[in-house]
Amino acid sequence: MKDVLDELAAARRTMGTATLPAGDAYTIELQRTYDASVDDVWNAVTDPDRLGRWLKPVTGDLRLGGSFELDGGEHGEILACDPPRRLRVSWLFGPGADEWPGTSELEVRLSPGPAGHTEFELVHAVAVGEPMFPTYGPGSGGVGWDLRLLTLAQFLADSDAFDHEEFETSPAGREFAGRSAVAWGEAHLAAGGDPDHVAAAVKATTAFYVPGGNER
């Protein structure tokens, strides 16, 4: 597997704004290039068997207008599907999530890159009133997506060579998660975040993803 610093540098992280049915939202945005065709990447993010091998097992009515549920409890509806370029879903998770419809949406966009590569963009929009942000900032979702997109890179390279659950508890995985928390703090600052809030959020995110580790 590539060095964790190489994998961390492979993604570009930004924060932005959006409007959801529930109101104003902030976005966590990840962009990276995959050494695979658009059709292959699209299949990896939409085929239930392949999706379950790098993200989580998924069930449901997997078509436009249908609903889905991941093995970890994340669930929602399929709002837009334009093969092989764009997928948008509502994304709910946690106790009482169904009482807050329209508060979280996830969109994946694919475009052809040079030499048969794929430009991949993930945008997760979350309503401003979402309760995790004051404590964790964009790292509340950003670190998890960093880990999953790293897993997707390994899956596309060799579908049998990587166990993401084992990696996340390994020294390399913990190092990656801790550095990801710092990287999301940098994105938060670049978006105008208050330095004191950013520092506290990075500390809390690091403690969550790297329990017992050194807080950055």
Automatic annotation (TrEMBL):
Residues 35-133 form the Activator of Hsp90 ATPase homologue 1/2-like C-terminal domain. SUPFAM superfamilies: Bet v1-like (SSF55961). It comes from the Bacteria. Belongs to the AHA1 family. This is SRPBCC family protein. It comes from Antrihabitans cavernicola.
